[in-house]
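Replying to the earlier thread about multi-chain prediction with a worked example.

Input:
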Amino acid sequence: DSGVTQTPKHLITATGQRVTLRCSPRSGDLSVYWYQQSLDQGLQFLIQYYNGEERAKGNILERFSAQQFPDLHSELNLSSLELGDSALYFCASSVGENQETQYFGPGTRLLVL
Amino acid sequence: GENVEQHPSTLSVQEGDSAVIKCTYSDSASNYFPWYKQELGKRPQLIIDIRSNVGEKKDQRIAVTLNKTAKHFSLHITETQPEDSAVYFCAASMRQAGTALIFGKGTTLSVSS
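Result:
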């Protein structure tokens, strides 16, 4: 157990819908990262927050957004869902914001029908 | 853009043999290189990492080497065991602020007894 928690574990929804994925970092970690893992694209970095502020952005679609709250938990919002958004979404956390070891949560498996 | 190439995509070895996985990266500014092991349906777990000021690091049966000039790093597993069977991912830190990682496509290692 890495200490990073994610909810829900599984999510099944329909195209066009909106979902929210939640992540709680390890105690003491200030950075939260979101990654998408699909069979054809592998592990893709989406976005990083550090102490409530956006720090880095990857291949995140405009339909996706995220935020980190004062208690340091983070939410990833996915809207206007498409079939191709079906994937495993991982959250990871680290102590600092640069060159720090990242610990992954168990992931949320999203299935869009 | 920034890229990490990982080879081979699959690797089959006999128990007790060594396994080597190689990665190359494109961004000369990358200075943090972790390796993750992912079992089916589970989270990526950090197994070893190396920073750019170090050429080699070892932890029991696992070692990583880094050649910054060639932009190349490798994972070496000695005395492989069936429980080493998993997908292994290499990663490199991205140029932009933060600790976001670019991942290789993964290597599926199968160790047969």
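Chain B is about 0% helix and 55% strand.

Feel free to reuse this layout for your own posts.
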